[in-house]
Amino acid sequence: MSGLTERGRLALLLAGGVYLVAWGFGSRSLYPIATGLALAVVGARIWVEILRQPVSLTRHLGAREHVEGDDVTVGLEAKAHRSPGPRTLEVYEQISKLGERRVELHRGGRELHVRYVLPAMPRGRYRFDAVRAIFEDPFGLAHAEEMLGAESTLLVYPRLVELERVFSELGVTMAGGHVVLRRTSGFDLHSVREYQQGESLRKVHWRTTARRGELMVKELEDMPHDEVAVLLDADGRAVVGGSFDLQVRAAGSILRANALRGRRALLSITSSPPEMCQVGSIDAEWRTAFELLAAAEPTGSDPLARFLERDASPALQAVELVVVTAALEPQLVDALLDRAFARRPVSLVLVDAASFNGGEPLPLREPALLRLQAGGVPVAALQRGDDLAAKLSGLEEARAASG
Hints:
The chain has about 400 residues and is of the alpha/beta class. It folds into 4 domains: about 5-45, no CATH class; about 55-155, Immunoglobulins (Immunoglobulin-like), CATH 2.60.40.10; about 165-180 and about 225-400, von Willebrand factor, type A domain (Rossmann fold), CATH 3.40.50.410; about 185-220, no CATH class. Helices cover about 30% and strands about 30% of the residues. The chain has helices at about 5-25, 30-50, 205-210, 245-260, 285-295, 305-310, 315, 330-340, 365-375, 390-395, 395-400; strands spanning about 1-5, 55-60, 65, 70-80, 90-95, 100-110, 110-120, 125-130, 130-135, 140-150, 150-155, 185-195, 215-225, 230, 265-270, 275-280, 320-325, 345-350, 380. The strands form 4 sheets. The chain has an 8-stranded antiparallel sheet with strand order 1-10-9-5-6-7-4-2. Helix 4 (about 245-260) runs antiparallel to helix 5. The chain is elongated and about 120 Å long. It starts with a strand and ends with a helix.
């Protein structure tokens, strides 16, 4: 798109007005002024058309990983396809979540360069769309726009903490004082068949037996399961300020601690659509999970308790389940206690969303928390400004218990 700027249109109107005045009053001295203004506008338009040309644009975001809170330096490099190219080039960058930014590139050798800083970037996925370049004459009378294809994506990762141990390890002793053995495999129902004389009645599938009117037994298959599943609640209704970012940091830190120990882990995010990633090592699979955590958004709309009702979910099949949420609803408490009473390890990371808007902090004697702790469910309660490493490793609770 090209044409005259508002200043150029005003200059052209002024030239026409001066010409009419000169003609009406017979003032020959005004003719050169009118002609000069008109020629300036025409010359500006020609100048812009000469400058306007295809330009190759390259964006540099740096080679290192960026974590939340870092300043991100963005470099732009443009190269004109023919000479003479412009000495300066004004461009507008459209960045998702951040809006439009205007920068000006200056010639340095054969290319034009500019570097600018995005300060204290929050966690997230940022898309840089095509750049809009503006070619303009020195007097601002005419301009032309050109779209330069330089789409790219910036990932800002969550700032995780190092954990030597996880708070849930303090709670492997479940209700009743019995120690739960954590097995990495389990028996899944494969099919049912008719009962054969001498088989144990423990294998009877009573629901099918009642329906068919004859004894039917279960065919079980030994299936490997993930050792630990980290379930990140992405229900947007519970988010206040940066509470979801704290959830992501907690989930990522626990997931990484397990991956470093060689435990087979699963990350499950209840966003819409849900996201899931298995982590068997700290190498390539961890990278995929880390990118999921960077891009995670609280787009879910279903309560977490409803997600826990889906028996076929891989997260629920894991030996140990870690739930990270900011909404402690009665249905969720019941679901966690049901799992604990079935001697299947489960723990809860509860982010106090109210602490992000100056509200009253969650009471330590909250009845729901007391129910969970009495039922053998380890709980780590997080508030804004807490020492995340100390909370997730259980150090604060250990100090309180010892003294």
